[in-house]
Design brief:
The protein has about 190 residues and is α+β, with helices and mostly antiparallel strands. The chain is about 45% helix and about 20% strand. The chain folds into 2 domains: about 55 residues; about 120 residues, no CATH class. The longest helix is centred in the first third of the chain and has 33 residues.
Length: about 190
């Protein structure tokens, strides 16, 4: 296979519940959207609101944890490539802990000689997506991978699969298989 990937992806329980219930997910989004108390809140409601806010914040941070786990489970550490530091990822790919919930995906930079490879993974309640971007020095290489698409002006070539990763483990197997195909293609280019 060539890639070292974790044997298992573990979705935090809070996300399993949140991503299986669209009303709960909408409530979490609404709570996280503001930094103030809701208009008209009464004193006897403040404690309940703060408990709900704490639970929503837990879900937000556990999403980041799940995203890091997902990236590792899908891409691992490709053979022949060196993963960059977290500091490098933060400066080059906007990888910031507090933004993972809002961004819904993350990219990691890898290098091999003069080549630079960015591997992306993301998910929401309805789909999982992966992306690749390859550079030779400062020049971006065309990575026309079967079934992957690229939007005009986008820096990644993407593939996505419909399905809820939180409740359907077969989604991860399919995404991993597509990532393996992508890496075989990139290996041939590099």
């Amino acid at each position: 296979m060539g890639m070292l990937v974790t044997d298992q992806f573990e979705m935090p329980a809070s996300l399993q519940v949140c991503f299986a219930d669209s009303a709960l997910r909408a409530s979490v989004e609404q709570i996280l959207a503001g930094s103030s108390f809701p208009a008209g809140i009464e004193w006897d409601e403040v404690e309940a609101f703060l408990k709900a806010r704490a639970a929503a914040e837990t879900i937000r941070w556990e999403y980041g944890l799940a995203l890091v786990r997902l990236h590792q489970a899908i891409w691992g550490d490709p053979q022949g490539w060196t993963r960059c530091s977290v500091d490098d990822a933060a400066s080059e790919t906007s990888f910031k802990a507090a933004k993972l919930w809002d961004d819904e995906d993350m990219a990691v930079k890898y290098t091999s000689g003069d080549k630079t490879l960015y591997l992306l993974a993301g998910f929401d309640a309805g789909k999982v997506w992966i992306g690749v971007s390859l550079f030779d020095g400062d020049h971006e290489q065309d990575v026309a991978i079967q079934d992957f698409e690229r939007d005009d002006g986008d820096e990644y070539t993407y593939w996505e699969m419909r399905g809820n990763l939180a409740i359907d483990p077969s989604v991860l197997r399919a995404v991993r298989a597509k990532a393996d195909e992508a890496m075989q293609h990139i290996k041939a280019l590099a």
